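Morning - S-adenosylmethionine inputs below, output right after.
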Amino acid sequence: MLAIDFMPNLIAENERVNGHLTNAKFAVGDATELELPAGSVDVLFSNWLLMYLGDEEVSSLATRALSWVVPGGVVFFRESCFRQSGDKQRAKNPTHYRDPREYFRLFDDARGVAADGVTKVRFELVTCRCVDTYVRLKQNQNQLCWKWRVVRVEEEGDGTAAAGAAVDDESSSSKGSTPVDAPATPSRRTPSASSLGHASTSSSCAGTPRHFLDAEQYSAHSIARYERVFGRGFVTSGGEASTRALLLMFSPALQQKKQKLKDEKVAGNNPFVLDIGSGLGGAAAILAADYNCRVRGIDLSVNMVSEKVFFEFLKRSTRKRKKTHLFSLLSFFHSQNQNSNQVLSAMDRHNAAAAAEDGGASAKAAAALARFEVGDATRVELEPQSFDAVHSRDTLLHIEDKALVLRKAFDALRPGGMILLTDYLKAPSDEEESSSGGEEASGSAAAPASAPSETTEPDSTLEFSTYVSKRGYHLWDLPTYSAALQETGFADVVAEDRTGAFEACLKSELEKAEADREAFVRDFSEEDFEEVVGAWRAKLTRVAKGQQRWGLFVARKPL
Ligand SMILES: C[S@@+](CC[C@H](N)C(=O)[O-])C[C@H]1O[C@@H](n2cnc3c(N)ncnc32)[C@H](O)[C@@H]1O
């Protein structure tokens, strides 16, 4: 253990208190100039350090850290973000209250060389989340911590969407891509990824699944359009209604668990649910408010999780529109009005609930139960047997190594715990020929097909495989899913083709969007409206052809 600080008196005090520890050394040193032997560190920990450094200093430290820390080693830091925590007025405050996306950019961009002088290394995100004590005691989400792992650059790209290929192909993003699934194509009005604090697709850190999601399908603009169609808090088929209906399936297990805890007089230990791909936090809010569950929501998109994304996005939109239409910034964080144009990220939603005044007791209680973090379901570290249920809606479609996620979920569940998944599916291979017109509807996204022109073919004529690869989706068929759940060790596996329900949702969402045309065009644009309804019609066409399907999976970990 080597403890370093640039204040000699702090180091002296530290040594006085802890000097008896034979494995600890203490040194006065300045992080901005520090040099350590390459490959000499397993874990680099800092707490409230980077917020006192300028961007270049953070960047330089990150690069040096890449050579100090062994590949596989960890870098952890915790910083105040967004704003000051306390209310003390200060004449001088040297702190940089960064938007978390700034830290993402600085660490995503860092590249270094390992101790052998040859191997290129970078940081891979393990998790980014709020410091729980601040959330619990102060309802304050501005204390954020990051855990990164040092990995070889050739390890770049992980089990999620084959984003590297798709992002490298400029045509698949803002140039000429046709949105075929949903309103995801960044348009001219969309704030660019880099302007939102994410790496631009041309920077060195482009190509990770997280960047792909934040810059493309889940840009702030796209999420706002999705939410408009799916309903507040949801980016999934059927929105709140389908989520509520499906969550009823958890009900017996969660009630049973609650009773057991009550019988055993275990206080404050509500059932614990893992939500994989928690999106804007709609399902977590229901689980917390209606089922009294603690929820850990994990989502790879910073835009979905981090507060203020939409605040910035709406501010931008308002400026662009010369305030001719109403995005009410004032009431942005607090309004509960379902019809307003406000979009709340998972953290914003939490803030609004925690700040609820009269009549908000249940919202406050629910806010205290849900936590959100940015993390990859294929990389996340989960304590074994710690969850009573795992929930994941329409998320595994983004992930190639679904088997890994199922294994992680299985290990993280307590015996008897339940898993509930919905996901897009492709037709089983024996039906594939008839449904895809002879072309293999492959789930592989390794090589995105060349982008069709925005102005030419209507969505409905796009081949299913093109759609899948352009989205970076990885789709399984129903039997593959069912077999994988069983192979993982799950029992009582229920695997249902629910394409009929999916189609009904699509029709009603399309109808609602068409009825909302005037307001939609006012709040977004004519082009946005056409893209959205075009995308929904295209989904309906693929469903009618039997190509695009939707499945529900419920299973239990044996006792
Ligand atoms: C269609 S949205 C569904 C969101 C949410 N489940 C809901 O019901 O509204 C899919 C979500 O999966 C997230 N996602 C994609 N890949 C992921 C990964 N590897 N790990 C965690 N989340 C991921 C996306 O960022 C997105 O929020």
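Note: The chain is about 40% helix and 20% strand.

O.
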